[in-house]
Model the fold of this input.
Amino acid sequence: MENIIRGAFFGAALGDALGGPVESLSATEIKDKFCILRDMCGGGRLGLEPGEWTDDTVMTLDVARGILSNPAYPLEEIGHNFLRWFQSGPKDIGRTTRESLRNYMKFGNWREAARMTAQTLNKMDSNGGLMRTLPVTFGYWNDMQTIAKWSAEICMMTHYSHDSATCCIFYNILVRLAAQGGPKRSLVSRSLELTDGFCKEMNLQPTKFFWHMIKSVQKGSSPTLPRGNALDTLAASVQSFLDTQSFEEALVEVINRGEDTDTAGCITGGLAGAYYGYNAIPSRWLEVLKNKSAINNVVQSYLAYLKQKGITAPS
Done:
């Protein structure tokens, strides 16, 4: 399990750090500047240092810590972590997430806060819920139904969208299956099947375009750009995972498509890291990665938590 969990969490942070400096650039702009971006660089709109991660990884670790603090009902612990970070004045925070945190401070209820944000912004399908969802997989490893439940609930603390929630369910189920290995396209098929069943049980009604997009990606459609909505980002990440044969190439592929590169890198890195394992991650990236101790502490806590439950190997 250690190779998988370490691979997923470090993979997500590395994808975030690799993509952060080129966030919002087009594929052409990245090509003009780097030819192909393969190594950690600094700069970008946030003035990042090489190897520095963004809000994607911060919130991922906050979700992880919240689940570990109270796996039976993690929302309040996760929310407390979000608010503490928000009030610290972070470099960057997504618009939808920011508005939902502000609304929670007014109303004291996460679902109501997200609903109010939806009414204000009239757009809730951004990828801010997806970017932080990875820890749910490992917090509820033995129960797919519970993975689906908390994937949706944690997403909708800030992003009140059936499409976004469904993307989180699908992603975490895919990560769970990927950790066991096997043919990638079969993993996607099984994840779609399970997601469909859980959505029906939970009365989630994603648009038909969700199913069409993921099935098209699975069949080998033209490259999808990871724009700021959850579905495009998920599709680009799954596509890059399917069309490459290593952890490094999956990240290089998705990030060089441009657009929302830090989030695309983060979720691709989490998926590819679970599939290929920590041992497949390039050492040159790990050497540059900032604040590795924060990630390592979460990894060790998850390993101890799973060991208590008798889970020491994927099954």
